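Table 4 source record.
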Amino acid sequence: MQVTMTVNGDEVSADVEPRLLLVHFLRDVLRLTGTHWGCDTSNCGTCVVLMDDEPVKSCTVLAVMADGHRIRTVEGLERDGTLDPVQQGFMECHGLQCGFCTPGMMMTARALLDRTPHPDERAVREAISGQICRCTGYTTIVRSVLWAAEHEEGSERAPEPEQHTGPAAAQPESTPSPSEASRTSEHIGSGS
């Protein structure tokens, strides 16, 4: 099937198997490996990306379900050489150790700050409750998101472009097969 979507501001198209998961499309077809693939059961949250500005676990979304939508990955946070306040916050407050959960945490944090510019600690903990970190104990992650919230207004962050026309994604010779194709989309929200 042919899919076309906007990924990090660029329109991409590719021919994919109907059962291909979005996480595999991003990693294997588009080579955007910042999105991590972890538990394969939608529990860990390492694969979180934004779909039309809402965080979704990309291991539960088929690539064909993203057709016509805007996808933003961790690679899309930095703009013109300037880190997003969330990225800067994770650096300033040591919000990562092994780094495996970090991309998903950052994308969830970005969505939280976009809808709630001044969250308190409880709101941050609730937002990331659908994600697992085995290293940090969450304290430094929460601190990092709160740092980003404090530094958001002073940043020169431009709004995300709605759509760019860019080179279409190269079509692979063979599309990788996902391990579980019958999943449906699951939004990350409070308590999920």
